[in-house]
Write a structure and sequence with these properties.
Elements (H helix, E strand, L loop, with lengths): L4 E6 L14 H15 L4 E6 L7 H6 L4 H25 L4 E5 L8 E2 L2 H9 L3 E5 L9 H11 L4 E6 L4 E2 L11 E2 L1 E3 H7 L6 H9 L4 E5 L5 H6 L6 E4 L1
Helix pairs in contact: 1-3, 5-7
């Protein structure tokens, strides 16, 4: 296997499947199967999910809601998604732990770095909910932060496109895909990979980012096995 321990970043929107909002059980089951495939190969998996399928703090702020209040609502949305994914993973036979940056002791463990690493070493999937626990930070930032804390080999960003392009491939047919690009080149070209805070944190800690299409069955296993899937961003 190419990696021993990874952090998988999923967007909340990805859980909608073909719906306009909420959670699609079929998409959850597909993700659970793909994740189980790599855990069965001995890869240690941690996951961070966004909450955009339920609520976005930025969107709330744009219509007059207090930004801090909105971000706290967004954090709770990521916990809901985490619980849904935990259920799907356990249905597939994977022991899973949900840890949150905000205390909700009745439904999840608090985030404790050493405990998270111990879970991973025992073969359990660990889902990190609640973002960083602070407003004004995205789940991209939470994903990079947790990946660094658990000493992950890379952060895998599962999206609906198969990598990083010179332009949005859904809008520009002439967009060219990068198989590999450096952090510096991403910044020079002004490409959008993650928000600036998350991207800079990843760059400073030499944490590779791989952007790939999570919705194509088997892609995660192929990537972990060393096949050239998606776009790799590193030094």
């Amino acid at each position: 296997m190419k990696f021993k321990r990874i952090l998988l970043k999923l967007s909340g929107e990805a859980l909608m499947g073909n719906r306009n909002y909420g959670i699609d059980p079929e998409r959850l089951a597909e993700y659970a199967k793909d994740i189980k495939d790599i855990v069965d190969k001995g890869v240690e998996v941690a996951i961070v999910i966004g909450g955009g399928n339920i609520f976005r703090g930025v969107a709330g702020a744009s219509v007059g809601m207090d930004r801090v209040q909105g971000d706290h609502m967004g954090m709770l949305a990521t916990v809901i998604n985490g619980l849904a994914l935990q259920g799907a993973l356990e249905d597939s036979g994977l022991p899973t732990r949900l840890q949150t940056a905000i205390k909700i002791n009745e439904v999840a463990e608090p985030f404790i770095r050493r405990r998270a690493i111990r879970h991973l070493e025992k073969g359990r999937v660990v889902i990190f909910g609640g973002g960083t626990g602070n407003p004004y930070f995205t789940t991209d930032s939470a994903a990079v932060l947790r990946a660094i804390e658990i000493e992950a080999d890379a952060i895998l960003k599962g999206t609906r496109v198969d990598g990083i392009y010179t332009a949005d491939p859904e809008k520009d047919e002439s967009a060219i895909k990068f198989d590999h690009i450096t952090f510096e080149e991403v910044l020079k070209k002004g490409l959008k990979v993650m928000d600036t805070t998350a991207f800079t944190l990843s760059q400073e800690n030499k944490l590779p980012i791989i952007v790939f299409d999570m919705n194509k069955k088997g892609n995660l296993l192929k990537l972990i096995s060393g096949e050239k899937i998606g776009t790799t961003v590193d030094l």
